[in-house]
Known about the structure:
The chain is built from 25 helices and 27 strands. The strands form 7 sheets. A 7-stranded mixed sheet has the order 6-5-16-15-14-7-8, with helices on both faces. Helix 2 crosses helix 18 (about 470-480), helix 7 (about 225-235) packs across helix 11 (about 275-290) and helix 7 packs parallel to helix 13 (about 305-320). Helix content is about 30%, strand content about 15%. By secondary structure, it is an alpha/beta fold.
Amino acid sequence: MREKTVIENGRVRTLCRMCDTRCSIDVHVRAGILTDITPADGNPVNQGRMCPRGNAALDVFYHSDRILKPLKRQPNGDFIEISRDQALDEIAEKLQKIKDDFGARAVGVWKGEAVGFLQQEEYVRRFAHAFGTPNYFSNDSACFNSRFLGHYLVAGFWNPFPDYSRAGLIFLFGTNPPVCHPPFMSEFADAKARGANLVVVDPRLNPIACYADIFAQPIPGTDGALAWGLIHQLIQTGSYDQPFVERYCIGMEEIAAYARKFTPQVVEAQTGVYADVVVQMAELIRKNQPWISFYVGAGLEHHENGVNNIRALAILACLCGALDIECGFGWPETLNRNDLTLYRELPLDKEKPIGADLYPVLYHIRKECHSMTAMDYMLGKGEYPLKGLVVTGANPAVTNPNIRKVEKALSNLDILVVNDLFMTRTARLAHYILPAASYLERSEVHINHKHQRVFLTTKVAEIPGVCDEYRLWKDLAWRLGFGETYFKWENETEVNRYILEPSGISLEALQARPEGIQYKPLCYRKYQFQPLPTPSGKVEFTSSYLKNLGLPAIPEYVPPYHLRHTNKDFPLLLTTGARMTLFYHSRHQNIERFRQVHPQAVAEIHPDDAAQLGIVDKQQVRIVSEIGSLVIQAKIVHKSELRRGIIEVYHGWEDWRINFVTFDHITDPISGFPLLKAVPVRVEKP
Length: 686
Ligand SMILES: Nc1nc2c(c(=O)[nH]1)N[C@H]1C(S)=C(S)[C@@H](COP(=O)(O)OP(=O)(O)OC[C@H]3O[C@@H](n4cnc5c(=O)[nH]c(N)nc54)[C@H](O)[C@@H]3O)O[C@H]1N2
Ligand SMILES: Nc1nc2c(c(=O)[nH]1)N[C@H]1C(S)=C(S)[C@@H](COP(=O)(O)OP(=O)(O)OC[C@H]3O[C@@H](n4cnc5c(=O)[nH]c(N)nc54)[C@H](O)[C@@H]3O)O[C@H]1N2
Ligand code: SF4
Ligand SMILES: [Mo]
């Protein structure tokens, strides 16, 4: 590898993009070699700190397994190196042929978590529409969209990062901040130091639960019943923010009537959380309102009733008056910038975006096609065929549910192109693999809505032959004949300049301020002087938009699949994906020093379940669901660490893929999210 660093010696300040938190870091360069990464000051996001994954960017950058040349699969399955020009020429030719034979919509594009969410995502969406296909897929079909929709349907927005430091009560549902969002921890500490209370609701004892005033371990998928129970308590005791509700909310009567049946006893029967604990939680809410940060994590999303459970919690936050306050359910103001997508210029709604008929809310609001339905289209079972796919920064052959089907579907494509750094499970199925640039090799605009700051990352180094995300889409677009019109910028710097144009912040100003620029002062309770961005302009406890689509207007609680369909063949519940500090989904298992800490996958099992099954610690067990099975090592945890009856397995292992066991056919009717956190299973001795 002959990397070229932007400076010969010194430090380059940029943002870490090893996760979406985006902490400020310094990358150290000595004699043209990247030698270290250290945390940098000046950015309120990380306040001079960094997590252990921060400097693993160098392990990735210099990894000996990195793909540095385009690869083409041969008929015998082997890959050979080819030139970038040959690869792009052949890819473009094949995509064009599919377009000519089957129409542009027979090609799809897929963006994963690794590349990011602003221009990185917009390049992909732009390319799709310029080519003529509406079929944009992403990891967001199983991440974040349910949380976004749950809040958006109530208030018209969602900001994923509340300012916990100013809360009197922090209420966490299904989230594990010390592992997933380490910078939240200093805010928790600040709030705790001022006497704030903490409530954690999670079937698994995650590290944050150790600091909680109340820790409740509900039956997975039942959080909606708890939310309604708390709503009922607030209404019954008259302790909600009545002036706020009267002035700014619609649907109070309907929710008051619906909430009535969720007495603490009913909540206990449904969720397993004791009735007196429900009353205690309500008391903490009453005592601290409106200064409450409610935060919902992925733990609530991966259920087939996720959006409505999250909606019920969003309503609870509004009843407390926690809407758009300093620590609450924030209404972010965005940067006035140019958007790269072409939804306005080239709308393709009539082209039948995949999944838009099944999950219209997902498509209307998120402009996202449904990745699980795409598998059927690839297998020739859709309304039209999906024949070609270009994937960047994703590893769906590990991270999507029902991967036996995913592998079959991807293998059925006429062309699969994967842009990645490594030979992943997904890349192995590709016809062409393109070497991707890591974030250290890119310069991109990032926005943090919580702090209303815009940042520009600095490209630190370049590897000959390895191209950034913009070059990938640009080079394909020019070969396909729409480069001149839609990908005219010379390079990503010119794109960055274009994105920033309307903002009044120049590229040069941002370059000079790597710690970011606040584009607008934070302003709260904006609903007092402008309508909310919902159809009615008010907080919507009832949604006529959903009603018109034939969905319940209020977030009715539907017990989870496993309670509605008890099956004695599958008496346990598999919950997947509780994150680990050192791994990021399917990433970093190839970093030796991380792998030493986590040498292999384990299935966490409650000791009483293990005893009943006659299983001992470290024994191999087979986890079996309706659709698949996986042999994995058992790890018997302490009885307080898991609710009884639950098996927990991490989802990102390349060699122990739990998504063989998870379903893609039980989905949330609003977001289309798969059931990944309460899958009925049994455990056998293999
Ligand atoms: N180190 C690391 N950090 C990450 C990631 C990573 O892979 N590694 N991934 C990033 C991404 S993309 C995401 S989306 C976020 C996710 O981050 P979080 O939103 O914090 O989600 P998880 O870590 O998956 O934590 C989910 C918790 O929900 C619990 N849970 C499961 N089912 C239920 C339920 O029905 N109800 C309740 N109340 N709890 C439940 C689980 O036991 C688990 O502790 O993390 C991000 N941060
Ligand atoms: N069972 C189960 N499944 C889940 C979840 C769960 O909790 N349980 N969580 C879901 C969630 S929340 C998410 S976000 C998804 C994530 O799923 P994916 O989007 O598939 O994310 P990763 O597995 O991290 O795959 C990222 C790929 O990008 C590559 N990569 C790394 N850096 C770069 C880069 O800079 N550029 C490019 N082009 N490629 C890069 C990596 O090598 C890796 O192969 O998984 C989902 N799947
Ligand atoms: S939390 Fe860790 S991985 Fe995420 S941006 Fe910060 S240092 Fe990087
Ligand atoms: Mo995610």
